[in-house]
Write a structure and sequence with these properties.
Layout lengths: L2 H20 L25 H40 L7 H22 L5 H18 L3 H22 L2 H4 L6 E11 L3 E4 L8 E5 L4 E8 L2 E6 L4 E5 L3 E3 L6
Antiparallel strand pairs: 1-4, 1-7, 2-3, 4-5, 5-6
């Protein structure tokens, strides 16, 4: 090989070696990674105190609605009675009829007071007020008015006796609150009538949906009720609703 060719090849080799040493190292190839998976868990926390407060407000609202309904019923009846009296003045009751009705009403009132056992039942106050008005009407020789008021007093006393009938209802339980007036209720589905205010008490009966009931008092979320046969017990408050006139 000629000397010049050898020199040329050596120079080329030397240049390639120099370029190879100065070349930067290739960058590392990034490794693809999947995003981290976040697991969330939903936990439902029940606030028992809040549930109790909501239930109490529902019961108080039901009680107020019943009071308004009762007052409206009394007002309507009073208006009808005034109209009847104005149209039929000649049919006023005799003195003897009024006196007899007042005597019966007084007996009913005394029986109610014994049944209540000293409790501040609203029916006692209402019946006593009606008897006072009846006495005043009788003294004014308004025997028709006295008769009507005496009958109203008897009806009120009878309603109160239904609240306290039976020894189990004569004594209130701790924390038990009486409604201002008995509530006209119905079951909204199959409901258990229990011996006391709680699921731990014995089941007395199973009531079908739509069963008419009368509510008398409540403890927390439980209502003391009686059916149309007089059987009494306790039901959970959201298993009953207000009963309209004529509903069964």
């Amino acid at each position: 090989m000629p000397r010049r060719s050898a020199v040329t090849l050596f120079a080329v080799w030397l240049a390639l070696a120099t370029c190879s040493k100065g070349a930067p190292e290739p960058a590392p190839v990034p490794v693809a990674t999947s995003p981290a998976r976040v697991v969330t868990e939903t936990v439902t926390v029940r606030d028992h105190d809040l549930e109790q407060r909501v239930a109490r407000q529902d019961l108080l609202l039901l009680d107020k609605d019943a009071q308004i309904e009762e007052l409206q019923t009394q007002l309507d009846e009073a208006r009808r009675e005034v109209l009847r009296s104005m149209a039929k003045v000649q049919t006023l009751a005799t003195r003897a009829e009024a006196a007899s009705a007042m005597a019966e009403a007084e007996i009913a009132l005394q029986t109610l007071r014994r049944s209540a056992g000293g409790q501040a039942a609203p029916e006692v106050a209402k019946a006593a007020k009606l008897m006072l008005d009846a006495t005043n009407a009788f003294d004014l020789q308004n025997y028709g008015g006295a008769l009507w008021l005496a009958n109203q007093a008897k009806n009120e006393a009878g309603l109160g006796r239904s609240r306290f009938s039976g020894n189990d209802r004569a004594a209130l339980r701790p924390g038990e609150q009486l409604f201002a007036v008995p509530l006209r209720l119905r079951t909204v589905g199959r409901s258990k009538l229990r011996e006391g205010p709680g699921t731990g008490y014995r089941t007395l009966a199973t009531l079908e949906g739509g069963r008419p009931l009368t509510g008398f008092s409540y403890v927390d979320q439980w209502m003391r009720v009686a059916d149309d046969s007089g059987r009494s017990g306790w039901v959970f408050y959201n298993l009953v609703r207000k009963r309209v006139d004529g509903a069964r």
